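Continuing the series of single-chain predictions for the mutant panel. This is the parent chain; the variants come on the following pages.
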Amino acid sequence: MRIVYFGSPGAAIPSLERLLQSGHSIELVITQPDKPAGRGKAPTPPPVKEAARRHGIPVLQPEKISKDPAVLAALEKIAPDIIVVVAYGQIIPSAIIGFPRRKSVNVHFSLLPKYRGAAPVQWAILSGDEKTGVTIFELNEKMDEGDILSQLETDIGPRENARELEQRLSRLGAEFLVRTLEKIDKLSHLPQDQARATLAPRLHKDQARIDWGKDAVSIDRMVRAFSSWPGAFTFFRGQRIIIHAGSPLAVSASPPEPGRIVEVRREGPVVGCGGGSAYLIERLQRENRKEMAAADFLRGTKIETGDCLG
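Parent structure:
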C-alpha cells in the first residue's frame, strides 16, 4: 500500500519501520514541529522525523494541521491508499481523514473505549489495571471515538513501568498493524460503547508530586506511571528528589507517620505511607543529577530513621 504516516514520539517508530519491512511504501511522514529542548533550548526534531530521514522519506511538520493547506495538497499529489496514525499529537480534520479510499486508521495503546486521550499507558498503571492492549480503529474528528477494527489484549506486568509498557505496546502494535492492514478490506467495523468510555488526559508535572498520605500501592503506581515523564517526586531537606523505582511494603507494627523514614535498609530508605503501609525507595535522582541506586545515594547522604520526606 501507498501510505502517508502520521506520528511523532519514539513509540511511533516501530510501526513506521515494520510497515517498511513488510513491503508497504511510506510516501510521506507528517509529524510535529521541532521543539526547543535541553539547557540550550536548541530546536530538536521529533524522533519520527529522524527515523523518516534515515529511510529517505519526505517530512512535513505543520504547526496546526487544520490550517495548513500544504498537507492536503501533498495528499492530492501522492494519492495514498490509506493514512496510518500513531501518536501524532494533533486532531486531524475530516478533509484529511477521509481523503484516501480506505480513510485513516489509528494505533492506540489501550483497549478502547477505555482510556481515550494522550496518556492511556500512564492512566492504566495509575488505575491499577492488570490488562491493557492495542486498538486499531478508523479515525473520525472526535478524540479516539472511531469504529474499532481490531484489538489485541496483553497483561500489565506487576513491576512494569510506563516507559517499559509503552515500548512493549509499540512493538506489539507495529506487528498487529501489519496483520490488520493485510485484511483491512474484510474487517467489520465495531462502534464503540460510549457508556464504557473513560478518558486518559495528558498528565501535568504537578500531578507527579508524591502524597505520602496515600497507601504504598498507590504511590508505587505513581512511580511506575510517571517513569517516562516527569518522574514522581518528593522533597528531602528542601531538595527535589525523583523516585524512579521502589516496592510497597506492609508494616506489622504500629502505623507509621506518612513521609517519615521508618527504617534505613541496605537497599534504600523505607518511608511511612498511609493506610499502615510503607515504601522502600530503590532508585532515585537528585535534582540536576543522574539516576542512581538508593544504596549509592545513602553512601553520600546521611539519612536516619525519623527524617522526613515531602
